């Protein structure tokens, strides 16, 4: 069967049995998933939207829309070609499902919060534009940090609390009639029916953020922004740290040994967030499907 790879926009051919086996291996992680038989519970969404309607916070047409779909999201896998054994990243396909309408509604209030996030880029093109303007010092090195299994390791409650703490930066929210309590309930409900279907079986993700929900990327971005601010002060310097989702490039004066020790210390912090690292080799490091090279002639960074 033909599937899209996790990075690089590549398409690969996989044995069907291997594809199913690798996905089910992830779903059989009882710390993260449980198999269920009756996952649908629309009562909480129905009750909450009825409350918003009676308070004149939403129109009847929107109330009906938020309760109109009962289909479950489905799981698909993207092989990680850059990882040993090509393990699978699970993607939850949530479009036109029980989660999609209420998640999209919640997203409309929080999407402006991206403006509160530091050193984060929207795409590889933005990264290339920024990195080629940087001047490096002779004793600086290039390295990358990758957050391991980012979405499934970010605590939902903490991420939602960060949204509420920053929500006054959202014009859309400020101009609405919703309270912070309403928005918090809305966000939690967007993840409450966190069940997916794969190979005629239904699984419920027990905690954290599912990939595929439109809210997950921005909640993950906000959480990592806060995490980096609190714990990565040693490398979190303007024009020295660049982040795209869970991929971080740093420009550092640390040696390879010093960086490895630093990452070990980061990974001992009491949290679910863990990092892997890659240090430059022959003045080169790979990042976001590009190869970055230190140009010692002009102290710039070449991108290929």
UniProtKB/TrEMBL annotation:
SUPFAM superfamilies: DNA/RNA polymerases. This is Reverse transcriptase domain-containing protein. InterPro entries: DNA/RNA_pol_sf, RT_dom. It comes from the Eukaryota. Gene3D superfamilies: 1.10.10.2210, 3.10.10.20, 3.30.70.2630. PROSITE patterns: RT_POL (PS50878). It comes from Rotaria magnacalcarata. Residues 1-304 form the Reverse transcriptase domain. It holds the Pfam family RVT_1.
């Amino acid at each position: 069967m033909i599937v899209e790879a996790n990075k690089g926009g590549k398409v690969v051919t996989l044995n069907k049995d291997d594809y199913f086996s690798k996905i089910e291996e992830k779903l059989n992680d009882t710390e993260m998933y449980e198999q269920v038989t009756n996952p649908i519970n629309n009562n909480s969404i129905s009750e909450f939207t009825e409350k918003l309607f009676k308070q004149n916070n939403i129109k009847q047409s929107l109330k009906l829309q938020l309760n109109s779909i009962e289909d479950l999201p489905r799981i698909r896998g993207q092989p990680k070609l850059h990882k040993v054994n090509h393990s699978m990243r699970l993607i939850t396909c949530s479009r036109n499902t029980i989660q999609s309408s209420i998640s999209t509604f919640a997203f409309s209030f929080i999407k402006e919060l991206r403006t509160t996030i530091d050193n984060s880029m929207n795409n590889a093109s933005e990264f290339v534009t920024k990195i080629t303007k940087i001047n490096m010092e002779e004793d600086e090195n290039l390295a990358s940090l990758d957050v391991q299994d980012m979405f499934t390791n970010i605590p939902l409650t903490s991420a939602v609390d960060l949204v509420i703490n920053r929500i006054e930066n959202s014009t859309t929210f400020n101009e609405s009639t919703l309270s912070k309590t309403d928005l918090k309930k809305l966000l939690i409900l967007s993840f409450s029916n966190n069940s997916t279907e794969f190979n005629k079986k239904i699984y419920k993700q027990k905690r954290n953020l599912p990939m595929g929900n439109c809210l997950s990327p921005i909640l993950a971005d906000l959480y990592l922004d806060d995490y980096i601010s609190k714990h990565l002060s040693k490398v979190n310097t303007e024009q020295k740290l660049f982040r795209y989702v869970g991929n971080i490039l740093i420009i550092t004066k640390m040696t390879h040994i010093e960086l490895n020790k630093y990452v070990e210390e980061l990974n001992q912090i009491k949290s679910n967030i863990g990092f892997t690292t890659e240090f430059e080799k022959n003045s080169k490091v790979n990042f976001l499907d590009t190869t970055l090279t230190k140009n010692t002639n002009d102290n710039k960074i070449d991108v290929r």
